[in-house]
Design goal:
The structure holds 7 protein chains of 7 kinds. Chain D is mainly α. Chain D is built from 23 helices and 2 strands. In chain D, strands 1-2 form a two-stranded antiparallel sheet. In chain D, a hairpin with an 8-residue loop joins strand 1 and strand 2. The relative contact order of chain D is 0.11. With about 800 residues, chain E is mainly alpha-helical. Chain E is about 70% helix and about 0% strand. The longest helix of chain E is centred in the C-terminal third of the chain and has 36 residues. Classes of the chains: A mainly alpha (about 100), B mainly alpha (about 130), C mainly alpha (about 160), D mainly alpha (about 525), E mainly alpha (about 800), F mainly alpha (about 130), G mainly alpha (about 120). Chains in contact: A-B, A-C, A-E, A-F, A-G, B-C, B-D, B-E, B-F, B-G, C-F, D-E, D-G, E-G. At the B-C interface, helix 1, helix 3 and strand 2 of B face helix 1, helix 2 and helix 3 of C. Strand 1 of chain C pairs parallel with strand 1 of chain F. The structure holds sodium ion (2 copies). One sodium ion binds next to helix 13 and helix 14 of chain D.
């Protein structure tokens, strides 16, 4: 299917705008924090929003190949969040260094 | 994990025709091994791999170079595309080249994960991030 | 599977995919473990159906909460006594709880007795909410996974926590 | 041997050697052998290329059989081949020297593969005729040098490496930006094509503005004033083998790139660009030599001298007359050999006396007269003492400077020559002559076999310096041909665009606008 | 052939001497002396032909492109000098053999000495400016190693270094002067240049040529204000002082002036500079010679005086002056070499050179004493010695010179008075009087030590009695070459009662007076202060110059090579801004309308977010928070890529961005944050640099975007991806086929990075301050911990 | 064709709505746990619906498989990620300064564990108190 | 759009420069990351931009559609991204190792002995 036109295109464009607006809100949260977990949650959501953006954009421009991109992002975004979670955990572990760990 | 690996091979092979390629495929594969290492420790991940990341990288570069050199034997030039069509199957040196890239990138991803982890085990606190 | 992913199907690509897939799988056999077969398919489907329903309905609730001004929430961190005991069971329960709006699993106690969850709405009171979760979601998981999921694995008493 | 094979061999050999050395990771002896064979092979191939160029002129080949100017091409002119030969000579020398010098731990962690990988980057840079490909080889060279400079992980190495790494990363990105802008102006990356296209842009001023990025980026690589800081901060930290290789070659790849782009691509307003280069050259000479004069560590003195000497080479380019370019090329050839050799000598001194500090080195001359003699040759050559190779290089540049009427740079060059003499004799007086005042013990040194092996490349390079001095005529002729090619860059352009595999000959293809055909029309 | 033998045989001996000397034993000096003797003989065979006006040449192309040849020619002047060099050389070789008998580096000594002699011969015979310069510098080098021969003594090392640097500085000036000469005349060939005097004198380069060539000559020949290095050079073993720093090498500067006299002289400029500097040097050093008690110091200053005299004579440039110059070169060489050897012999036997401590040595060293006496008489210009002939000629030249006749005559007399007094000091003090504690135990020197002085004294007497022997054979051809004309000089001992004779009488009388008043003169406070200014003062001046330059080096190194990476980066960035900005300023800003009307809403947002995300990294205190912001920027860029048709790029960007974030987070777990921040001022500066850099880059892009864009390369790839590359994904086909070489390089980078990380993390796991796992030094004498010396690595 | 587009657009719009809500929720909700709720659920659901919309537009096996893989992967990873962040930020709340919304009425985790979060002693005796709080 | 990208690139370069001039080595490296991103955008703009159309040849076709995004600039950026990542990974690990040795990531603390012992 080729590029959308007419009403569907209008709708899809509106979706795109909504997604980027939501992206903006998320980034505001990311910048405002106030704590690291807030930012990490925001970044995690930014990845979802990026996935959504690509899906809508794929439809809008008639290029389903973009689906692959979103798949890759979904695959790795999780890793980023895991890394942050590890970091946060590390903070509390560092605090409790003396106590033996449960595993 | 097997799924992501499969996906990575898929990315590798499709690269020439659609989006993807050895680099992206290799990274995805590397990531899945890395996940495995994070979840179950580098020792078992190394065991699963059966080759050191360094060997993977060396072999990857070797394959890439080999794919470049192969056409020379037929009087061609370095890195010339050489395709063997076998029925509908098309295998060419560019694909072989991409396979080299794929292996090398896996090796890179893993060497980072393994070495960082083994150098300072605190970096990846072991936990059951169960999948 | 492979060929389905491939999209543009050709015999050649199939062959290559097959060979490579096989090789990759061979290489990775230690990772895969034994495939476990399970006949409680119906329960599984039911679990999925229930879960989707919950997902949608309470997503809407969160959406409304977010969109309308002011907060109507009554949040808290609850301790849910666990009946499921197997790793898979706890994992599944915890993850499904997380995916269900209004609840988010935080941790499992070290003795596997409790799952701690963050709840946005403690509607009918703590006890009722916990019971509701146990009756609906956990019961379905136990049904789907079988009775062994309620037994503590013998090897280790370690909870999936660090 | 086909021209194609001959041209790619300097790249292919180290590739194969690197892979082989990686696969033989557990057999250090095999690696050492592979390395020496690899460097020797590169040298042989490069000499073969020289022979071929002498007969047939500039050699061009396509990589992947794509037509010129669309595919990546390798171009070998006199400048390239001279650089290839000299770097291969240093490669061979260091390969031999490294056998006793580089410790087992460093070998275990890949010294020999890295050595070959560095060579790949260097040779690739010399061979390629594609601007983006040049960027890629620069990066290969850079990362290999990063690794070689930290290999061993001493605190000093790490601290030096950080500065080296950060500044060079910035430099690479500036280069990349330059490549992007040039591509944005012309739509091509083939340097021969660019040579034409950039003059057709119709905005010579803009081209010059963009050229500034190349000047900065390559200036950093070449350690020009005021961009050289990374060099003295790091070059004295790794083993002598590594620092010799770096000292001889790495900055010279930057110089090579400057020579290449500022003769082939950015000659729109020589009055502006090359005047800037000339100022850079003068300031580089002065700051480098003043820096060297106050150093008290063998290798730090030498490091600052690299900088100062780069000034001379760039002076040749900046004056932009055939004779000046000739002098620059002569200077590069002479300098690489001499400078690498001095670092090799410093390594032996360190091995014999346990330090690089001039103070501790005391009295080498008394016990190691041969080392002293082998130091004197490159050191005095560096200082431009006649009739050694450095004298000829400086002579040519001085004449060129006077002919060009650039008297101030001649004055600077001459004064810096004097100060270079000061530094070299400072090393001589402080490290070689006994300064303790008291009698040195009569104990004759117990020189190990390893040290004797290290003398071999040093003697070889010293002999080469003498050969260049004695046969300055033939070397002059080579440099002259190179300068002719660089000054009249249309030779390069025509050789590439008229290559048998050029798109103009290959007939019309979709999307080809036939720009390559223009050369025929001219 | 004779020429080649004369020039290169010395180098051959230099090469083999260190090895050969172990076989020559006691006869080393005599055996090696055969070589200069043979060269002298060979050259002597040419005297007749040269006197007959013939010129002999040899030439080999060296660097044809520069017209540089290795070429030599023999004319009267060069032959005169060459014979002097090899003749005196013969005596010095013999003397050195005795003086350094048993020295464990005797071989090296003769090697250096032979190298010097060969270089000196090469210098005077050179027919090419570059050949000339090469040998000129080689003599400096030989002087360097010979002065520093006793290199375990600090003054010796300093003197060698100083002499080298001073003469090298002059040498470089000379070289530039030579190049200018070549520019003016179009040739490096000396004999051709000598024909082009008018061309040079009228060339705009004439002034720089004269100044530069004279700078070379004055430093080499120790003229004011450069003479300080020569007394210091007396640290050399005495044979060296006698040979290099008196009889020959220092005359190389004189030779330069003489050689190029035909093309450079004849102007007021030449006359005033050369004559003036020569006269000044002569007077100052004549007086300084009387301020010292060390025999070698006195000899050194009288040498400088002689050199000043010779310089002055060349500055005068009249026929008589040039003849006087040539004659006095010989006179001086004979007596000065002899006296040096005598001083050396005394030093060798007594180990003291202070004339106030010596006395009565005629009892212990009678032959030496006689030779010394004869040499001193020649030095004092007493008839019938050769010195008298020279002095008469000098006075003739002075009194017949037109401008400033009185001044020239006065300084000449003053200098000769000092010579008389010095001659007395050098001979009467050590040899006459009674033996004292110091001289009591002096040994009789061996033959080698007195052979040279005796021969030279004989020459001083012989030539004094029969000076006309020199007329046709030497003086005519050499002075003729200097004057660029054919002359027929007539030397004679007796000219009748002339003004010159009167002056001579005055000179001797005043000299004796000065000798008697020596102690008073020497200890006078005012004179001592003067000595501190002009003697050690200039020497200290040299130190100040060197220290000043080193101070500048230190300052500059501290400023530029501050060790602070941040400053290095600022410098790089400011330079970038400066150069690009200046180029923009120079060429205009390529301005024009900027339009962003085509940008759609989501693109605006993505562009903004990529900047905002990046901007966020500046504002977070915590680095980990900053990473999240970085992630936003990276993701936004990826989406921008996607929005403009680059899915592969977006994919890679997502992957890499995520991996970057992960990697940084992992590293941050272990890497502590930096304490302390930048000052407000630094922040403002950094901000300015940042803004400048951003502006420059934006400006560049905007300027380029104004140009029309054709994309032949990209189009070609697109059109041929399927038909030639068997692919559908154009980008991937570019990566693995069209430009696979780039990708090969790219994965090479990855491989190296991987192995580099491996090496970084695997080696030296424990922090090891300063431990480089060094093998111990191999030298047993090395100053580092020897106790731990274990097995060698190899 | 039209029906296909209508369904597709509907799914997309709904999905986008949820994505929007997720963003708004993360911005508006008062503490990190609440924000996690919004991001995890609404985000996942939104993306899933968008993916479904894409499949409706491109009813092709390849697309379907990949879209399913995408959704499946999200469903697998999103809760794990949320769990990890939630848990980590609870444990590290002091180091990070994480505060809980004032309207949070109960914290059983704190009750059970006290401050010694990593104590190896199981807190059995408190187990019977669970559910006894109103 | 290219115009906007020019401004974006400039802003990113400015930000990266400010980070490069921090004392913290990690921040410097992040500066390099942002600088790389900026330069990649520069190349993207230089290759001129086309909305949507990916440089793919549809299945069964021999030539790409009339209007496609410039594949060359994409390929160049791809190569540069990957190279940049290799360098970045190495640099980060280098900083990590340096921190192990010096217990600090403060670049200002790594002042080399500029003049050596005298
Ligand atoms: Na040119
Ligand atoms: Na140098």
């Amino acid at each position: 299917m080729a590029e959308l036109s007419g009403a569907p295109a209008w709708f899809a464009s509106a979706c795109l705008i909504a997604i980027v607006l939501s992206l903006v809100m998320t980034v505001i949260r990311l910048l405002r924090g106030p704590t690291l977990p807030d930012r990490v949650v925001s970044l995690d959501l930014v990845a979802y929003q990026a996935v959504a953006f690509m899906l809508v954009y794929a439809v809008l421009t008639g290029q389903p190949a973009f689906l692959d991109v979103s798949l890759v992002l979904a695959l790795v975004a999780f890793l980023g969040t895991v890394a942050f979670a590890r970091y946060i955990e590390h903070l509390s572990v560092a605090e409790e260094e003396a106590a033996p760990m449960s595993d | 994990m097997p799924l992501t690996l499969l996906f990575s091979v898929f990315l590798l092979l499709r690269g020439h025709n659609e989006t993807g390629g050895g680099f992206i495929g290799g990274l995805v594969a590397g990531i899945s091994f890395a996940l495995y290492a994070i979840a179950y420790g580098t020792a078992s991940s190394r065991e699963a791999l059966r080759a050191t990341p360094q060997q993977l990288m060396a072999v990857g570069l070797g394959i890439a170079v080999l794919s470049g050199v192969l056409p020379l034997f037929g009087g061609g030039t370095l890195l010339e595309g050489l395709w063997v069509k076998w029925g509908a199957l098309k295998v060419g040196t560019p694909v072989l080249f991409d396979v080299g890239v794929y292996l090398l990138v896996i090796g890179l991803a893993l060497v980072i994960v393994y070495e960082l982890e083994e150098h300072n085990p605190g970096l990846f606190p072991q936990s059951a991030a169960s999948e | 599977m492979w060929t389905a992913v491939q999209g543009a199907f050709t015999l050649a690509n199939f062959a290559v995919g097959f060979v490579l897939g096989y090789l990759v799988l061979r290489l990775l056999r230690p990772l895969l473990g034994e495939a476990s077969y399970d006949r409680r398919i119906w329960y599984k489907v039911s679990l999925v159906g229930f879960f989707l329903k919950e997902l949608i309905s309470s997503s809407v609730r969160v959406a409304i909460e977010v969109i309308t001004p002011g907060y109507r929430m009554r949040a808290g961190i609850l301790a849910v006594p666990l009946s499921v005991r197997s790793d898979l069971g706890i994992t599944l329960f915890a993850n499904l709880i997380s995916l269900t709006p209004g609840t988010l699993s935080l941790d499992v106690s070290e003795d596997r007795e409790y799952l701690y969850i963050h709840a946005m709405y403690i509607d009918q009171g703590e006890e009722e909410d916990i019971l509701h979760l146990k009756r609906t979601l956990e019961r379905r998981i136990i049904l789907a996974l079988g009775a062994e999921s309620t037994e503590t694995p013998p090897v280790s008493d370690a909870a999936p926590a660090s | 041997m086909s021209a194609h094979l001959l041209i790619i061999l300097p790249l292919l050999i180290p590739f194969v050697a690197a892979v082989a050395a990686l696969l033989f990771a557990r057999w250090p002896t095999v690696q050492k052998g592979i390395n020496i064979v690899s460097m020797g092979g590169i040298l042989a191939a490069s000499l073969g290329l020289l022979a071929r160029i002498t007969e047939q002129g500039i050699q061009v080949t396509t990589i992947g059989d794509w037509p010129v100017p669309f595919g990546i091409v390798f171009v070998v002119d006199y400048l390239s081949v001279l650089m290839l030969i000299v770097s291969a000579i240093i490669g061979v020398a260091v390969a031999v020297y490294a056998v006793p010098d580089v410790d087992d731990a460093r070998v275990r962690f890949g010294f020999y593969p890295f050595f070959n990988l560095l060579m790949i980057g260097i040779n690739g840079a010399f061979l390629t005729g594609d601007l983006f490909n040049l960027y890629v080889w620069f990066e290969v060279m850079l990362i290999s040098s990063f690794v070689l400079i930290v290999l061993g992980n001493t605190d000093e190495q790490l601290a030096g490496a950080v500065k080296y790494v950060v500044i060079n990363l910035v430099s690479s990105l500036l280069f990349l930006a330059g490549v992007g802008l040039v591509y944005g102006m012309t739509g091509t990356l083939n340097m021969a094509e660019l040579s034409l296209a950039l003059s057709e842009v119709g905005q010579p001023g803009l081209v010059t503005v963009v050229a500034m990025l190349f000047l900065i980026s390559f200036g950093i690589k070449a350690a020009l004033f005021p961009l050289f800081f990374w060099l003295p901060a790091s070059y004295h930290t790794p083993p002598a083998s590594v620092s010799a290789f770096f000292a001889g070659l790495l900055t010279k790849v930057g110089v090579y790139a400057l020579f290449r782009v500022f003769t082939l691509l950015f000659t729109q307003d020589v009055g502006y660009t090359h005047t800037l280069l000339l100022w850079g050259a003068g300031l580089t000479m002065v700051t480098g030599v003043l820096g060297a004069a106050v150093q008290n560590d063998f290798r730090r003195v030498l490091s600052f001298h690299i900088i100062s000497q780069i000034g001379y080479m760039i002076m040749g380019l900046a004056l932009y007359t055939p004779l000046a370019i000739l002098g620059g090329v002569f200077y590069i050839v002479h300098h690489i050999i001499v400078k690498a050799n001095l670092f090799l000598v410093s390594g032996v001194a360190k091995r014999l006396r346990g330090s690089f500090s001039l103070k501790s080195l005391d009295g080498l001359y008394a016990y190691h007269p041969w080392l002293a003699a082998l130091f004197i040759i490159p050191a005095f050559s560096l200082a431009g003492f006649p009739p050694l190779s450095g004298f000829w290089a400086k002579l040519i540049l001085t004449i060129a400077g006077i002919e060009a009427g650039a008297y101030w740079i001649v004055a600077v060059a001459v004064a810096v020559g004097l100060f270079t003499m000061f530094s070299m004799t400072k090393i001589w007086v402080k490290a070689f002559l006994p300064g303790g005042g008291g009698d040195l013990p009569d104990a004759v040194s117990s020189m190990g076999l390893g040290t004797r092996v290290m003398y071999v490349p040093i003697a070889g390079l010293a002999a080469l310096t003498i050969l260049i001095s004695v046969f300055a005529g033939p070397v002059y002729d080579l440099a002259e041909r190179s300068a002719d090619e660089l000054y009249n860059s249309s030779q390069y352009v025509e050789a590439v665009l008229n290559h048998e595999k050029s798109a103009a000959d290959a007939g019309p293809r979709p999307g080809v606008d036939g720009r390559a055909g223009r050369v025929h029309a001219r | 052939m004779a020429i080649l033998f004369a020039v290169f045989s010395g180098f051959l001996l230099a090469l083999v001497a260190p090895w050969l000397t172990q076989y020559t034993g006691r006869a080393t000096g005599w055996l090696y002396g055969l070589l200069p003797a043979a060269i002298t003989g060979t050259l002597a065979t040419l005297v007749g032909r040269v006197a007959a006006g013939e010129t002999l040449r040899v030439s080999y192309a060296w660097v044809p492109g520069l017209n540089v040849n290795l070429s030599f020619y023999v004319d009267g002047l060069s032959l005169f000098f060459a014979l002097l060099i090899t003749g005196i050389g013969t005596l010095i070789y013999v003397y050195a053999g005795g003086y350094l008998k048993g020295h464990h580096h005797l071989g090296r000594f003769f090697s250096y000495l032979s190298m010097f002699m060969a270089a000196m011969v090469g210098l005077v015979l050179a027919d090419n400016l570059i050949t000339f310069y090469i040998f000129f510098e080689l003599t400096s080098f030989a002087s360097f190693v010979l002065i520093g021969f006793n290199h375990d003594e600090a003054p010796s090392r300093r003197a060698a270094w100083q002499a080298l640097l001073v003469t090298k500085a002059g040498g470089l000036a000379l070289l530039v002067g030579f190049i200018l000469m070549q520019q003016a005349t179009g040739t490096f060939q000396i004999s051709a240049i000598l024909e082009s005097g008018d061309v040079i004198r009228q060339h705009s380069f004439y002034l720089p040529i004269v100044l530069l060539v004279l700078a070379g000559a004055f430093t080499k020949s120790a003229q004011f204000p450069f003479y300080f290095w020569l007394p210091n050079a007396m640290e050399a073993p005495t044979p060296v002082s006698a040979y290099l720093h008196s009889a020959t090498m220092v005359k190389a500067g004189i030779y330069v002036m003489a050689r190029f006299h035909p093309v450079l002289s004849g102007t007021d400029l030449w006359m005033w500079i050369v004559g003036g500097v020569g006269a000044l040097t002569m007077v100052l050093s004549a007086w300084l010679a009387l301020q010292y008690t060390d025999m070698k110091a006195i000899l050194a200053y009288t040498t400088i005086m002689a050199l000043g005299l010779l310089t002055m004579l060349l500055g005068l440039g009249t026929e008589v002056a040039v003849e006087a110059c040539m004659v006095f070169i010989l006179v001086h060489a004979f007596y000065k070499a002899a006296l040096f050897m005598v001083a050396g012999a005394i030093d060798h036997e007594v180990h003291v050179r202070d004339i106030t401590k010596l006395g009565g040595l005629r009892h212990r060293m009678p032959v030496t004493g006689v030779a010394a006496g004869l040499a001193a008489l020649s030095m004092a210009g007493i008839p019938p010695f050769f010195g008298f002939v020279g002095k008469e000629l000098i006075y003739e030249a002075a009194t017949h010179f037109d401008p400033a006749t009185v001044a020239v005559t006065t300084v000449s007399v003053l200098a000769n008075v000092a010579l008389v007094a010095s001659a007395g000091l050098l001979v009467i003090r050590p040899f006459f009087g009674e033996l004292n504690d110091v001289t009591e135990h002096a040994h009789r020197p061996e033959a080698g030590l007195w052979f040279g002085p005796v021969v030279l004294s004989v020459f001083s007497v012989g030539l004094g009695l029969a000076p006309w022997l020199l007329d046709a054979a030497f003086l005519g051809p050499s002075a003729g070459a200097v004057l660029g004309a054919s002359i027929e000089p007539h030397l004679a001992l007796w000219h009748g009662f002339t003004l010159e004779l009167g002056l001579s009488a005055v000179t001797v009388a005043a000299g004796v007076g000065t000798y008697l008043a020596w102690t008073v003169l020497r200890t006078n406070a005012g004179f001592q202060q003067l000595e501190r200014w002009l003697g050690t003062g200039l020497d200290h001046g040299y130190d100040h110059v060197v220290d000043g330059l080193l101070g500048m080096g230190r300052w500059q190194t501290n400023v530029l090579q501050s060790g602070v990476l941040r400053r290095y980066l600022s410098t790089v960035l400011v330079t970038t801004i400066g150069l690009v900005g200046a180029a923009f300023y120079h060429y205009g800003f390529f301005g024009g309308a900027i339009s962003v009307a085509d940008v759609r809403f989501h693109e605006w947002v993505l562009a903004a977010l990529s900047v905002v995300g990046a901007f966020g990294t500046l504002f977070f205190r915590s680095r980990i928070a900053l990473i999240t912001s970085l992630g936003v920027s990276g993701f936004s860029i990826a989406l921008l890529f996607l929005a403009f048709g680059a899915p592969d790029l977006a994919k890679t960007q997502f992957l890499i961005e995520t991996l970057t974030v992960i990697l940084v987070v992992l590293i941050l777990t272990a890497v502590s944050d930096v304490q302390g921040t930048l000052t407000a001022g630094q922040k403002v500066t950094n901000g300015a640099v940042a803004v400048g850099m951003g502006a420059v880059v934006s400006g560049l892009i905007l300027a380029v975007l104004k140009l029309p864009f054709e994309n032949p390369m990209g189009d070609y790839y697109a059109q041929n991806t399927y038909v030639e590359g068997e692919g559908h994904n154009i980008v991937n086909t570019i990566l693995v086929d069209f430009r696979a070489l780039d990708t090969l390089g790219e994965i090479t980078v990855l491989l190296v990075a991987g192995f580099g990380i491996y090496a970084l993390l695997r080696t030296g796991t424990a922090p090891n301050p300063n431990a480089e796992n060094d093998p111990p030094p191999e030298d047993a004498s090395a100053p580092v911990e020897q106790a731990e010396q274990t097995q060698q690595l190899s | 064709m039209v029906a296909q587009q209508v369904v597709g657009i509907f799914l997309m719009s709904t999905g986008t709505l949820f994505v929007f809500v997720a963003g708004l929720g993360v911005l508006r909700l008062p503490d990190v746990y609440m924000r996690l709720h919004a991001s995890t659920k609404a985000g996942t659901l939104g993306v899933a619906l968008n993916a479904a919309g894409l499949v409706v537009f491109y009813p092709d096996l390849g697309i379907f498989t990949r879209a399913s893989a995408l959704v499946l992967f999200l469903l697998l990873t999103a809760p794990v990620a949320a769990h990890m962040i939630g848990r980590a930020s609870y444990f590290a709340r002091e180091e990070l300064g994480v505060t809980v919304w004032g309207g949070t009425v109960v914290d059983r985790m704190l009750d059970h564990r006290g401050k010694a979060l990593f104590s190896t002693e199981a807190v059995e005796e408190t187990s019977d108190s669970s559910g006894a709080v109103s | 759009m290219e115009t906007l990208l020019a401004l974006v690139t400039g802003a990113m370069v400015a930000i990266s420069v400010y980070l490069l001039l921090q004392r913290d080595l990690v921040r410097k490296i992040i500066g390099v990351v942002i600088l790389s991103n900026g330069i990649h955008l520069l190349i993207f703009a230089m290759g001129r931009m086309t909305r949507g159309a990916s440089p793919l040849i549809p299945s069964g076709e021999k030539y790409p559609p009339e209007v496609i995004a410039n594949p060359l600039s994409q390929a160049l950026i791809l190569t540069a991204i990957v190279i940049g990542f290799g360098l970045l990974a190495f640099s980060l690990v280098l900083v990590y190792r340096l921190h192990e040795s010096y217990q600090s990531a403060d670049a200002d603390a790594l002042i080399e002995a500029t003049l050596g012992d005298e």
